[in-house]
Specification:
The complex is a heterodimer. By secondary structure, chain A is α+β, with helices and mostly antiparallel strands. Chain A has helices at residues 2-39, 44-82, 84-119, and strands spanning 128-137, 145-148, 161-164, 167-175, 180-184, 191-196, 202-206, 214-216, 229-232, 244-250, 256-260, 269-274. Among the domains of chain A are: 87-123; 128-274, Rod shape-determining protein MreC, domain 1 (Thrombin, subunit H). Chain A has a six-stranded antiparallel beta barrel. A six-stranded antiparallel beta sheet of chain A has the order 8-7-6-9-10-11, with no helix packed on it. In chain B, helix 2 (17-30) packs antiparallel against helix 4 (45-56). The radius of gyration of chain B is 17 Å and the shape is globular. Classes of the chains: A alpha+beta, B mainly alpha.
Chain lengths: 293, 171
């Protein structure tokens, strides 16, 4: 008797539970779509949720990164050991060449400071840096961004320039308390005001997820040649002016692209530039998935 | 008494394996490895995990957990929030409803099924990314990622089956 009743319950319970499960699944899929819609419209609470989760995960990711980096350093050391001889010869040559440059640089520094004094030039304030470590690599097929282990409590905030070895990597687009997301300049949503260093021609460097972002919105009369240096223009007051970005390359079809100076494939330590501006407009920087208009 | 508690704790720990392994996979996917292009082509490990557990132990990886794992992956990788979530949930739903097709079948059948699922998931992710950025994104990197994921599945299956033996039998 007992057994039979249990049998009935079981027979009823299975499809019922199946229906319940299916309902839950469907609701969750709808919720997922909801997140996609809300995430692409930059809602404050979505932003907060993102940064909170990233903040919680940051210490864990930071811990994982250490052994990975140690192994990498070991491998690099061994590889370098073998290349020591040829590297030494190359470096000697380079020292010779750079010594000549050093002389020139010293002369120019002296000359520059003399000119500045004469002109009573008020240069930009000295920028300060926060050195951070990449703890999560989000350079997937559709997004180019990384998570770093410093956030608002360390002084990072949205819009700041991110560099490594003196050249531009991208900028901060979301900062949590102890983690921040950096949008790399090759990302689809990255737009950076730049100038051609030589001719001071303005342009916008637009990422398209390829390794070499394109140079857009040049004046019609502009003549840009391959291998000219591109630096940030500082227009908009968010990025400091004069940060090296890359060199112009002309691709087939005459499209102007920029080969970044930084090897974006290997990002380990980065510097967030705290640009000292006075009354800079609080511009909205395009978050990923934020449609650029 | 203590033994009973320990046994229960042990059982609970084992029950957490599918979800735990998936979370570890999320972390492995986003950790910056010093391999050129790693981040672009890193296989969709979590997708494989969802696929496997949906066939073998859907009870230990309920939809809510799949949802949370997808969201975690999206947030840590900086991808469109909700895109992996929806892809994982759809894969989960399809596979759970078709479990019998894959249970106790030869590995080649399962592998073929996984290839189809990966292709579908890749296409769907690409559609989401394109739709929400308002332009057609190059699908080359995604295609490469899909191929890498397909190729690595036998190795992952070996890991999953090893872990599978640790699970409580009754679940």
């Amino acid at each position: 008797m007992e057994y039979r009743r249990l049998g009935i319950i079981a027979r009823l319970a299975t499809p019922l539970r199946g229906m319940g499960q299916r309902f839950i699944l469907a609701s969750l899929v709808v919720a997922g779509f909801g997140f996609m819609l809300m995430g692409s419209s930059e809602l404050a609470f979505i932003e907060r949720m993102r940064t909170t989760v990233a903040d919680v995960a940051a210490p864990v990711l930071g811990t994982i990164v250490h052994p990975v980096a140690a192994v990498d350093r070991g491998i690099t050391n061994i590889r370098e050991l073998f290349a020591l001889r040829s590297q030494n010869a190359r470096l000697r040559q380079e020292v010779d060449r750079l010594q000549a440059w050093q002389g020139t640089a010293h002369r120019l520094v002296a000359e520059n400071s003399a000119f500045r004094q004469k002109l009573n030039y008020k240069g930009p304030k000295r920028d300060s840096f926060i050195t951070v470590r990449v703890i999560a690599d989000g350079r997937g097929p559709f997004v180019k961004s990384v998570l770093v282990n410093a956030g608002a409590r360390d002084g990072a905030s949205k819009g700041q320039a991110v560099i490594t070895s003196g050249s531009l990597v991208g900028r901060v687009f979301a900062a949590g308390a102890r983690s921040a997301r950096v949008l790399i300049l090759t990302d689809l949503n990255s737009r950076i005001p730049v100038i051609v260093e030589e001719s001071r021609t303005r342009a916008i460097l637009a990422g398209d997820n390829s390794p070499q972002p394109t140079l857009n919105y040049l004046p019609e009369s502009a003549v840009v040649k391959a291998s000219q240096r591109i630096v940030t223009s500082g227009h908009g007051g968010i990025l400091p002016p004069g940060l090296p970005v890359g060199r112009v390359i002309v691709t087939e079809g005459g499209v102007l692209r920029v080969q970044p100076f930084v090897n974006l494939e290997r990002l380990e330590y980065l510097q967030i530039v705290e640009f000292a501006t006075v009354g800079a407009p609080k511009a909205r920087t395009g978050a990923p998935w934020h449609r650029t208009r | 008494m203590t033994a009973a508690i320990l046994t229960r704790l042990d059982l609970w720990a084992r029950r957490l394996i599918p979800a735990g392994l998936s979370v570890i996979f999320v972390l492995v996917t986003v950790v910056p490895l010093p391999i050129p292009g790693y981040a672009t082509i890193v296989p969709m490990l979590v997708l494989a995990s969802v696929f496997f557990w949906a066939i073998h132990h859907p009870g230990l990886l309920p939809p809510v957990v799949v949802f949370a794992i997808g969201l975690l992956q999206d947030i840590l990788s900086g991808a469109l929030m909700g895109s992996s979530t929806v892809v994982f949930l759809l894969v989960y739903g399809v596979i759970v409803s078709q479990r019998t097709v894959f249970l106790n079948k030869s590995f080649l059948v399962v592998w073929f099924g996984f290839m189809m699922v990966t292709l579908g998931a890749g296409t769907l992710s690409w559609c989401f990314a394109s739709a929400f950025s308002g332009q057609l994104i190059s699908s080359q990197a995604m295609l490469f990622k899909v191929l890498v994921t397909m190729a690595i599945y036998p190795l992952l299956t070996w890991v999953f089956h090893g872990v599978h033996k640790l699970l409580p039998q009754e679940a």
